[in-house]
Design brief:
There is one protein chain. By secondary structure, the chain is mainly α. Among the domains are: about 120 residues, no CATH class; about 70 residues, no CATH class. The protein contains 28 helices and no strands.
């Protein structure tokens, strides 16, 4: 065994200490700015990125060494690179703060000397983005920089008038409306950050475990049992965490083994957990970071966003419940008694206050007219005050501290991703490329709303593949949003449309990050899990078209009671026919012609023209009646098709 010292071991401990301090300061700034007092904008953004830089470098070092300690010359090289990145990043951030201060004092033009720290900052944050978020987001940011520098030489609509290095620095670094330090960064720091901390604190106080137990209690008399419980728990847990992968890890480690034990295949168990967890971000009342950003970008109140998102989210979870019910019938799985371990105890009833209290606080604050960030602030205060009722927290108070630091770390790594998005925003805004692409899409689709939405859907899924929901949503709305709005679709509907596909991109093969997170827990094949997730979550691809054509479902726009009830009934019927057709089973195994007819009827009953959807509904009713009659007369084969 070698005794050679690892030169980075002591430095690694120093980085960890600095990272913990940075997380503490980030969390403290978020807590202060959301509910106590304002932080000067340029200082808030500069300090946020400086602290995120320290956290990001430490997190990237930890990931690099996760496969084993790095020693020798390689360790020294990594140490030097990390130190250079830290120094260059802090230099660039200080330059931003200095230039903004000069601009406030007098007229100040960005100089050639100012361009070099800006370029260094862009390189540092893009490299950190590559380390933490992969090549997808890195490619998005790198495209923004290279396009500004060299886009004048491209053909056709891609060409622009050209930008000097100084102009690139001004557009992407020294700008508080767009670029790295732009308005999106401000939204994340002032509003989103406190909710990220809140979500992790909620999990750390033990609210997640209690949610699971209540979900199992509510679904104990269903065929799906733990599969239905996973859907219910993930919808509640996901709306608080705002992260698909965190949701899968938080609930899937408990639900997936129980789903398998009930008799479902490992692929199905992982697939249902992945689809349920990804849907948490579209489920009110919290919905995760993307919905908070949507409220700021659209100017629509966050409370209105919650109301608008409610029924589309319920449709999605109804589709998952239907898929599990059909699969349970197909495999002959019956209702089973609940085990003693799943019963609700007095401690569970007490701990339920941990999630009911903060969520009631958020809703109450929003109804009372408080800002979204203030609602997050008071929710954290109430949660911390209530956390002492959990015996586990009283026996280990440090779990609150660890959760606070973990939440701040999640927020810091999100800021690194936002840097890449900010670069793209600055590039599209400076060159007008987004509007040019909107005009091209308008030319391709003609005057058909359906074809425009279809093009937007495909583009959204491609742009969002392999990315977290918030970056995916921002990229999609920047590129696709103007084209959808040009057809008369309202701003809120357009944002909701692309938001859904930002979430759905996590289920789309081959880069289905939700499926890849769930598959190892179930011991299933990741690619097969991705296709299963895609099949189970297929309703997520239909629902945005429904509210695009029928905005009454969003309630806050063009609401009328009878049309609303009518489209809700049609959508539920469509989802049931669609889910059963995908599974090839309803009360019995469906024939190929029945499957084809169900698909056709499911889609046509959503067509706005009554001359088309009314006959389709009648055919759908006839299909259900035929299936029920055939199931009564046919011999029973338990587990047929399993």
């Amino acid at each position: 065994m070698t005794t050679e010292a690892n030169p980075s071991s002591g430095i690694g401990k120093l980085y960890l200490l600095l990272s913990a301090l940075a997380c503490l300061l980030l969390g403290a700034i978020a807590f202060y700015s959301s509910g106590i007092g304002l932080v000067e904008p340029k200082f808030h953004r500069a300090a946020g990125f400086a602290l995120a830089l320290v956290v990001g470098i430490t997190a990237s070092r930890a990931r690099r060494e996760a496969n084993g300690p790095v020693t020798g010359a390689r360790a020294k090289m990594h140490l030097v690179l990390d130190a250079l990145m830290l120094a260059a990043g802090l230099w660039a951030i200080w330059s931003f703060f200095f230039v903004q201060t000069q601009m406030e004092k007098a007229l100040y033009d960005v100089t050639q000397a100012d361009a070099w720290p800006a370029l260094a900052g862009l390189v540092v944050f893009l490299e950190l983005c590559r380390r933490l978020w992969g090549w997808g987001l890195f490619g998005v940011g790198a495209f923004g920089v290279l396009y500004l520098l060299y886009g004048q030489d491209l053909p056709g609509i891609m060409a622009h008038t050209g930008f000097s290095l100084k102009e690139v620095a001004e557009a992407l670094w020294y700008n508080t409306n767009k670029g790295v330090f732009g308005s999106i960064t401000n939204i994340v720091l002032s509003t989103v950050f406190i909710f990220i901390v809140f979500g992790v604190l909620l999990e750390g106080t033990g609210a997640g475990d209690t949610l699971l137990k209540f979900a199992f209690l509510a679904t104990r008399r269903t065929r799906g049992g733990p599969a239905h419980a996973a859907i219910l728990a993930s919808s509640m847990f996901g709306t608080m965490s705002g992260s698909t992968v965190a949701n899968i890890v938080g609930t899937g480690t408990f639900t997936i083994p129980m789903i398998k034990k009930r008799g479902f295949s490992p692929t199905f168990a992982a697939g249902i957990e992945a689809t349920a967890s990804s849907g948490g971000q579209i489920m009110p009342p919290i919905m995760g970071a993307a919905a908070l950003v949507m409220a700021d970008l659209t100017g629509v109140g966050y409370l209105n966003i919650i109301v608008a998102a409610l029924f589309p989210a319920l449709f999605y979870y109804f589709s998952l419940f239907a898929a599990v019910t059909v699969e349970a019938r197909r495999q002959g799985i019956e209702v089973q008694p609940m085990s003693v371990d799943d019963r609700i105890t007095r401690v569970d009833l007490t701990n339920s206050v941990l999630f009911l209290g903060p969520i009631a606080t958020i809703i109450g604050c929003l109804v009372a007219g408080f800002s979204t960030s203030a609602a997050g602030f008071y929710a954290v205060v109430i949660l911390l005050a209530l956390s002492v009722i959990n015996p586990d927290v009283r026996s280990d108070p440090m779990r609150i501290w660890r959760s606070f630091l973990k939440g701040s770390q999640s927020g810091a790594t999100l800021l690194i991703a936002i840097a890449a998005i900010g670069i793209l925003v600055g590039s599209l805004d400076s060159t007008g490329l987004g509007l040019k692409l909107a005009n091209v899409i308008a030319t391709i689709r003609g005057e058909s709303l359906f074809s425009a939405l279809l093009v937007a859907m495909i583009g959204a899924l491609v742009l969002g593949m392999g990315m977290p929901t918030l970056p995916a949503y921002l990229i999609i709305i920047l590129v696709m949003g103007p084209a959808i709005q040009q057809l008369g679709v309202s701003m809120l509907t357009a944002h909701m449309f692309v938001f859904y596909y930002g979430v759905a991109s996590s289920l789309t093969p081959p880069v289905a990050i939700a499926a890849y997170a769930a598959a190892p827990i179930a011991g299933a094949n990741p690619l097969m899990t991705a296709f299963m997730s895609f099949r189970l979550g297929m309703a997520k691809f239909i629902i945005p078209f429904v509210f695009a054509f029928y905005p009454t479902i969003l309630i806050i726009e063009e609401f009328s009671l009878l049309p609303f009830l009518w489209i809700v009934a049609r959508t539920c019927f469509c989802i049931w026919l669609f889910s059963s057709a995908l599974s090839g089973y309803d009360r019995r195994k469906l024939t190929i012609p029945e499957i084809i007819v169900r698909f056709i009827v499911a889609f046509t009953m959503l067509v706005p023209a009554p001359a088309i959807h009314l006959p389709a509904i009648l055919i759908g009713v006839a299909l259900i009646a035929w299936d029920m009659r055939a199931a009564r007369t046919a011999p029973q084969h338990v587990g047929e098709g399993s």
